[in-house]
Design brief:
- The structure is a single chain.
- Helices cover about 35% and strands about 35% of the residues.
- The chain contains six helices and eleven strands.
- Strands 7, 8, 9, 10 and 11 form a five-stranded antiparallel β-sheet that branches. A four-stranded mixed β-sheet has the order 3-2-1-4.
- α1 links the parallel β1 and β2.
- The termini are far apart.
């Protein structure tokens, strides 16, 4: 019997990776496992994101992924993502605004959404400042959420248009 692999994304600022691991291992149940779980950390603080040597947990056998999700959702934003070839189904869309390239990480969730996080900006100081700014904007601006229609990924042109509008809003947002 093959046990399904489930990948989850823990999204937040200053993620306590040890607390997340403790939560995951508290749900470990090798005898009655219904799935194998790996959690990825989507750290929103760029100083931590850029310096952290790891980005996920080890694989753990658990019985009830819904209970794990409920507990993790009390700590951070959390989503289950689609699995393709043993990793999360993802892409790296990028848009260029005023000769600056903004690269995102696009992930597909199992609840028929596409999430895009700003992960890299191809220019030194401007990029780091915009990434730092993300921690201080309202949560709906911290990442882009696009719906899938009939389970299908939106067309690339639509994704890039929406991403460009989102990045422009981030650039224009004034942080006190």
């Amino acid at each position: 019997m093959t046990i399904e692999l489930r990948l989850g994304f823990v999204i937040g600022e200053k993620i306590d990776c040890n607390k997340v691991r403790e939560t995951l291992y508290a749900h470990e149940n090798k005898q009655a496992a219904s799935c194998r779980v790996v959690l990825n950390f989507m750290e929103m603080d760029p100083d931590i994101f850029l310096s952290r040597p790891f980005s996920s947990t080890e694989e753990v056998l658990i019985k009830d992924p819904d209970l794990l999700e409920a507990e993790l959702s009390q700590l951070y934003d959390f989503v289950w993502v689609e699995v393709l070839g043993g990793i999360e189904r993802h892409g790296h869309p990028s848009v260029t605004i005023s000769d600056i390239e903004y690269e995102g990480k696009l992930i597909h969730t199992i609840d028929n959404r596409v999430l895009i996080f700003l992960r890299d900006i191809i220019i030194d100081n401007h990029g780091r400042e915009l990434l730092r700014k993300i921690c201080h904007v309202p949560k709906p601006l911290q990442w882009l959420v696009l719906p899938k229609r009939d389970g299908k990924t939106p067309p690339p042109d639509y994704i890039l248009d929406e991403m460009e509008q989102w990045v422009r809003k981030l650039i224009a947002y004034k942080v006190d």
